[in-house]
Design a protein that fits this description.
The protein is an alpha/beta fold. It has helices at 34-42, 59-70, 80-86, 107-116, 132-145, 162-167, 183-192, 229-234, 252-268; strands at residues 29-32, 49-53, 74-78, 95-99, 122-127, 149-153, 177-180, 196-206, 216-221, 237-240. It has a six-stranded parallel sheet with strand order 7-6-5-9-8-10, sandwiched between helices. Strand 6 (149-153), helix 6 and strand 7 (177-180) form a beta-alpha-beta unit. The longest helix has 17 residues, at 252-268.
Length: 269
Amino acid sequence: MEKNPKQFRNQNRRPAPERQYSPEKDDGMTLIGRNAVLEALNSERPIDRIYVKSGDTEGTIRVIIAKAKERGIVIKEIAKNRLDEMTSNANHQGVIASCPFVPYATIDDMFEKANASDEQPFLIILDEIKDPHNLGAIIRTADATGAHGVIIPARRAVGLTSAVGKTSAGAANHVLVAKVTNIASTIDDLKKKGVWIACADMSGDSMYKADLKGSIALVIGSEGEGVGRLVKERCDFAVSLPMKGVLNSLNASVAAGVLMYEVLRAREI
């Protein structure tokens, strides 16, 4: 398969906005209060992100912020009333932490899973998917199509919340999910390992004309923004879904599902 030098162009389209992740609506594992959060940091417990009351950087909060930065955990300052809403007015002491409901895997784990099945790696890379229902649906389809793992960014994206687990119908307990600090550099590393990177983009060739066999990773962007420019530029080629209707976009999880099944079809020919 030869790399496609196609230059990507912007699309003048206005898809329906993707729902934003609202942590206060998630019933995942939330640690409330300074002692609980600090204990989790000291015990190396996996933490997706920490929410701190705006302007509160004294005492224990300062220690929490410092330790979180050492571990590369996302820290977000929000107003006290948001913290009140997220904790149902519990005594949060100006800080809460959101933890994944299942542990994250590594990309090496995904390669090991592929090797154990005597298969070439099939990965899904998500660029800023913020809706937990989209992530859960993608994980469920990844399980159905035999993908070896899903890669998500640490920032500006939803993590493994309980809402994701529920939407995945239990698939999140079986599909490996890795959280990385930089999607673009992760793609560079995957290419060095012989993985071809296919970007889902309206400017790409039809998926029916693309060669989706072999070691491959599908890159799926959010509905509102699509795949980011820096990430798109690192992809080997772009693929698009034929659109015959009035609307020219699909929900991110639907588009991902169609492409995943096209990869599965190509592998079984």
